[in-house]
Specification:
Number of helices: 4
Strand content: under 5%
Shape: rod-shaped
Radius of gyration: 33 Å
Helix content: over 70%
Length: about 140
């Protein structure tokens, strides 16, 4: 489920960040604002013009800040979903080990713990233990 969410989330973020209007605003917005501020015409000298430019500059700064926050939150969410997927993978590995211990390991260890009387039987148990140890790791 986390993998599906991650793929969907990345798709949405790509479509937002690759939106041509946003990309154009990010590329040209600052330069256009700078040009409007430096412009010296009879219209640009009026208080209404300067006020309008400041409102536009404030809106531009807000959009820029919100896009930055969106990217930061997106990166954080992506890391969290990646962590969940990694955790699920580790959890599955632990379950496999636990199942193996319950189904195979415990009974094999129990039989290996019973010492035999002859050296030959002890060597055989030692070999079985080495095989067990290799299978466990």
């Amino acid at each position: 489920e986390a993998q599906v969410l991650l793929a969907r989330y990345r798709g949405v973020m790509c479509s937002v960040l690759e939106d041509s209007r946003l990309a154009r605003l990010q590329l040209e917005g600052g330069a256009n604002l700078s040009r409007l501020r430096k412009e010296e015409t009879s219209v640009s000298l009026s208080d209404d013009y300067r006020d309008a430019v400041e409102v536009v500059a404030g809106l531009y700064d807000q959009v820029d800040e919100l896009v930055h926050r969106l990217v930061m939150l997106s990166n954080q969410r992506t890391q969290e979903l990646d962590f969940i997927m990694e955790f699920k993978s580790l959890e599955q590995g632990f379950k496999e080990v636990s199942d193996w211990i319950e189904e195979v390991g415990e009974s094999r260890l129990r039989t290996l713990g019973e010492l035999e009387d002859s050296l030959e039987q002890l060597h055989r148990k030692q070999t079985l233990f080495r095989d067990f140890y290799t299978a466990a790791y």
